[in-house]
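tokens incoming
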């Protein structure tokens, strides 16, 4: 239902929940999309890394690949690549903050 200012209730709720840092789980809506904020090169590199992990045979990091393949069966390959890219970004951020090394066994969650 549009309000007086021309925005819908769903759009305002999406913005409010995004600002709070919560995940938005609305029905498919054209108003709640992944933002393109941030460095385009980093987004591209993460997406390409997700693509390589999903499409090429790898010796290590099988927990990440199996998680993403299960997701690809449910949601499709493109969404699985984006989800894997996000997961890689979160892992790398935690490694930078904590100063820890990558442990492929701990990624299974």
């Amino acid at each position: 239902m549009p309000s007086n200012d021309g925005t819908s209730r769903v759009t305002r709720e999406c913005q409010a929940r995004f600002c709070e840092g919560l995940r938005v789980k609305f029905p498919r809506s054209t108003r709640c999309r992944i933002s393109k904020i941030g460095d385009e090169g980093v987004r591209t590199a993460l997406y390409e890394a997700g693509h390589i992990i999903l499409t090429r045979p790898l010796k290590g990091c099988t927990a990440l690949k199996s998680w993403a393949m299960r997701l690809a069966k449910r949601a499709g390959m493109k969404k699985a690549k984006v989800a894997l890219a996000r997961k890689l970004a979160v892992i790398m951020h935690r490694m930078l903050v904590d100063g820890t090394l990558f442990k492929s066994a701990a990624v299974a969650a």
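note: Residues 17-26 have pLDDT under 50 and may be disordered.
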